[in-house]
Design brief:
By secondary structure, the chain is of the alpha+beta class. The chain folds into two domains: 13-144, no CATH class; 189-398, no CATH class. Helices cover 43% and strands 20% of the residues. It is built from eleven helices and 16 strands. It has helices at residues 13-43, 51-56, 58-64, 74-97, 213-216, 218-229, 236-270, 281-284, 305-318, 320-333, 378-398; strands at residues 2-10, 114-117, 124-127, 135-139, 143-148, 156-165, 168-176, 189-194, 198-202, 207-209, 273-277, 291-292, 300-301, 337-341, 366-368, 375-377. The strands form four sheets. The protein has a seven-stranded antiparallel beta sheet with strand order 2-6-7-1-5-4-3. The chain has a five-stranded mixed beta sheet with strand order 10-9-8-11-14. The chain has a two-stranded antiparallel sheet with strand order 12-13. A hairpin with a 4-residue loop joins strand 9 and strand 10. Helix 1 (13-43) packs across helix 4 (74-97).
């Protein structure tokens, strides 16, 4: 299996400048390759330029511009061209499926933050010994950069990437390692229901509070964004304001990831089988369609857009998609099983008599079956129904 490791780098002042120059030159290569593809299609009888053709030109490009393109790793430049090729492949896939195409765009040097080396030892070298407290990564054109390795890297390093986040630099490794031994069986199965009032409710009656990291940081973010809006474009003061806003967003993101990792780890340690809702979060975040007023041409009726915007903000703040991705990955590593089930009517169906009706849920938190009179918390009822559906689907797969 392949596992990723992310470590903080400790470059010197000179190395920071060299790293920034590396990103600028790779960004320039990316934009030039994109321009070539656009011009070939528009002006040369709709000719399509492929990755192989652009990769073959790298030798001439490096010889023509040895100061900028010639000093960096050949394989990292090929990885940048592959990155553009993947962007075009995704574009054509969206066109065929009828989605919004999103043609690949030129990148600003401030938004081009990652360079990848496809193979350890080809333009880069991860130098790490198990008992050496000092770890370094050697990068062509940069030198040996110190790395804060907070945990050991298990397995052989396959790829190396350098990423810039604000003023910090990180090295991201992918290592191939043997699949770890599964955790001891617990004989327990659980269903979980994602929510906003509570982050999740399980079929055993437990609740995980919603930390609302984004909501807690709203005051500071609003003040920072207002200060940013008052700055003149291109000024040094505006650059500092941009860094402040980005730093606050990164802090919220790290807190959200930390909560997701800890919650998923608790579930994986305690249960052998975890059933969850198969949520289509992108559709849940769509804005409501406008309602034209039939009596007044050009006017519109209220469609609840303001309330829906608040709900969408809370859904995004909860980070359900990130959590479910982490939960699936941790369960796979631990030898646990996860199952996604259809979420329709899970909070409206009685777990005792199976009676399904909208009236069974009079409020957000209360479930009261109109058929048999069963009372419970609505989220717990949904988690019980999710577990039942997950177990049924697992048995159907085995059969």
């Amino acid at each position: 299996m392949i596992r990723a490791y992310k470590f903080l780098m400790r470059p010197t002042v000179g190395q920071q400048g060299a790293l920034a120059g590396m990103l600028r030159d790779h960004c320039s290569l990316y934009n030039a390759a994109l321009q070539e593809r656009r011009d070939a299609y528009r002006h040369v009888s709709k000719t399509t330029v492929r990755y192989g053709q652009q990769s073959a030109q790298l030798k001439e490009i490096r010889a023509f511009d040895p100061e900028c393109q010639g000093r960096w790793s050949f394989s990292s430049q090929q990885a940048t061209l592959r990155r553009l090729d993947r962007a075009f492949a995704a574009f054509f896939r969206r066109v065929k499926s009828g989605d919004t195409p999103g043609y690949p765009r030129f990148r600003s040097s401030q938004r081009f933050d990652t360079v990848e080396w496809p193979k350890d030892g080809d333009g880069c070298r991860w130098d790490s010994t198990p008992h050496d407290p000092v770890t370094r990564v050697r990068l062509q054109g940069i030198g040996h950069v110190r790395v804060h390795r907070h945990r050991p890297v298990v397995g052989g390093v396959k790829t190396v990437s350098v990423k810039r986040e604000g003023r910090r630099w990180y090295v991201v490794l992918t290592a191939e390692q043997a699949r770890p031994d599964p955790l001891p069986a617990t004989g327990s199965a659980v269903g979980i229901d994602m929510g906003i009032a509570s982050f999740l409710a399980d079929s055993d009656g437990g609740f995980v509070p919603n930390p609302r990291h984004g909501h807690k940081a709203t005051t500071k973010l609003e003040a920072a964004q207002q200060a940013l809006s008052r700055c003149e474009r291109g000024s040094k003061r505006r650059r500092k304001a941009v860094e402040t806003v980005a730093r606050l967003h990164r802090k919220v993101r790290r807190r959200r990831l930390d909560h997701a990792h800890k919650t998923a780890l608790d579930l994986v340690r305690e249960h052998d089988f975890i059933a969850h809702e198969d949520l289509t979060i992108r559709n849940m975040l769509r804005a409501p369609a406008p309602k034209p007023d039939p009596e007044r041409p050009g006017a519109f009726l209220s469609n609840g857009a303001a309330a829906k915007a608040g709900l969408n903000k809370s859904i995004s703040d909860a980070g359900w998609g990130v959590f479910l991705t982490i939960l699936t990955a941790k369960a796979e590593c631990a030898g646990r099983e996860t199952m996604a089930v259809d979420p329709r009517n899970t909070s409206r169906q009685c777990p005792r008599c199976r009676h399904t009706a909208k009236e069974n849920r009079p409020t957000q938190a209360i479930f009261h079956c109109t058929g048999c009179g069963h009372r419970a918390h609505a989220d717990t009822v949904a988690a019980v129904n999710v577990l039942r559906a997950g177990l049924a689907r697992r048995e159907a797969r085995k059969g």
